[in-house]
Amino acid sequence: MLYIHIPFCLSKCIYCGFYSVANTRQKEVFLAALKREIVQRSTYLAGHPVRTIYFGGGTPSLLSGEEIADILQTSHNTFQITPEAEITIEANPEQLSPDYCRMLHDLGINRLSIGVQSFQDPVLRFMGRRHTAAQASEAVHNAAAAGFDNISLDLIYGVAERSDEQWAEDIETALSMPIRHLSCYALTPEENSILYKQIQNRKHAPVDDEQAARQYRQLCQRLRQTPFRHYEVSNFAIADYESHHNSAYWDHTPYLGLGPAAHSFDGHSRQWNPANLSQYLHNIGEGILYEEREMLDEKALFNETLLLSLRTRKGLSLNALCERFGPSRVNALLDYFHTKVPQAHYTETESRLRLTEAGLWFADGIAGDAFEI
Length: 373
Ligand code: SF4
Known about the structure:
The protein is of the alpha/beta class. The chain contains 15 helices and 15 strands.
């Protein structure tokens, strides 16, 4: 798996905690460094084939066709990328003109993840998004017309500025589109976001957790009546259109992250690049392969496995867990579930522990409490 972080946006959305700079002045110098990084880290995946490539950010759709082609070519020259690899690009609606969509499709990008967030202009304005509701709809249709079969939309719920009825309308609008995948996230004011500061300075009310939980239930209830399958806390897909890239993260598959703030995982340790473009450029120039590295001991790997697997509807394979970490940890985990986790929040068979739809809302808390066992 390859993750490529494109650290440029045209402005910052109010809720965003992802690393990016709000201009594209250093795009060229960044792209030269990125190509150098791809080559510098050519052995990281130890010759394993690359089955997914994901352009995230930031706003990858600020790149031109030549720039994307160049990155893909360097990746193909460096790694063994499988012919059927899933290649995703995150795109903002305002960039998805018919020509741009066709160009992405011609380059072999086969999955588009569109940052729609809402189909309502007042909500988009509040979030600081640069597109309108009309542009969002147009973008999806342009992508489909260009030949994209695998389109995913991102939506955000739990926004005080949008009522439950308006949220229901957004869900309906999304379902009326030619999409196969839906990622829905609760509004979370990340610590380095504008919204976080506004809440701290009392310029915005804190996020209403009850509203977010209610709108999550609304979403699950509605999607249960559709072919979309709830396969991870925030993700829904038509059969066979689950994100291969994200599913591989959740399965603990090693991955290489390139670009500022990108993380990598080799199965035993995690490394990350500086969340700072200048520092990143300096490091690449000096041949410094990553900013920091954290070795993951057995307990840390066990905890990560819980955290990632419990967020998925597939859940935890008890046999695999036992093989990897031994029976005593598995017994302690089962003990924790039997005594501390409400029965309505999980199901247990001989081979699997799975959170129910109600339980998934508490997945991080349930996994976090299990870290103590
Ligand atoms: S949400 Fe996306 S477009 Fe908005 S600032 Fe963050 S990375 Fe950029």
